[in-house]
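Bench notes, afternoon.
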Amino acid sequence: MRTHFHDCCDIPSIFKDFDADENDPASYGFTLSDYYIEKIKECGTDIVYRLGSSMEQGDFRFNNKPPKDFAKWARICEHVIRHYNEGWANGHRYGIKYFEIWNEPDECFTIPEMNGQWTGTAEEFGEFLSVAASHLKKCFPDLYIGSYPSCNILTEQREAFFRTVFSILRENDVKLDFCSWHCYADDPERTKKYIAKVRSLLDEFGYTDTFQICTEWNYFWQRRGIWNDMDGENGEYLMEEMFTTASSHVGAAYSLAQMLTFQQSEVRVATLHRADALSVYCTMFNIYGVPQKQFTAFYAFDALRACGTEVKTDVLADGVYAAAASREGEYAVCVAQYRGSWKTYSLCVCGLCENEVYTAESYITDDKRNFELVRVQTGTPGEIDFSQYLKSGSIFVMKLKKAEKQAF
């Protein structure tokens, strides 16, 4: 079964006639969305459900205008949530916890009608969000209801939009469990600026308990005029080069560095855009579904997840990102050598038992290798070599485990 993602999950796709009775199950069409979400759940993946419409591009826009009745729109979303979590309308009990209201309302095109998401003003979005968030939080106090997925909070124009919206939310005493945003960049240090900026603004408006999630991120060149260049003559070649880079060892190292940055911040959830092989933004797989080098960044990060408990990590090298985890005699260290010097790096692993024997496996992704097992060592911590030569644009993972004692 093939379908376009716009046909799934978007509110206008599920509830096609806004004038219909929102309390009548017959007004809803869940078939395609049910199939779509079922396949996601079969993969064992959690969901952040975006309540709204997908980005529209090209010369026409159909679902980018503010709902004509904010309260009714909120009640429609209430029924969508009940369908997926409470079995309403022959539905499901998926236990989806995160629901994000709308998407990138702060696009700032010269012609507002061509905004891909929201043609209204910041004031209108503030009032809309006040109604929608308040209603959904009242209906589902145990779920995480949030919004404001900004496309770039670091620009003055979008910060002004944010300030207007949150001024209205504060005046209306509206609670948001999370504030979401998007980050396309080629430097994790930029991500740190996003996190700090959003935290500063939330605190300023009294949303000190509101946590952050990043609902879109991926590798993207940060240079002035990039969008105009891609839309201009021969822009297709520029786009090909950029997204090919994202699929490469460079994008892999960036992706791991980005995930480690999120891990070591207050960001609770971060979702890559995209991984479905149907878009130029899908840099994890090619059009045939074959995993690319960027995919190995998630293999690397999974080594941390498998160990379970993050431990303190200090990095004493520029352009390098690292994290470590441990659990009951198992340890993992992940290193993203994104923009550092080409040289031998040394790990100093503290807390290992000096007289215990460990097995150490080392894996590398770079321009030549795809998460390749490059070395296996067995010995005490003093006998294991914790150094590794790394190029820029590479991933290094060391897995340590207490060796099984031999029975005599």
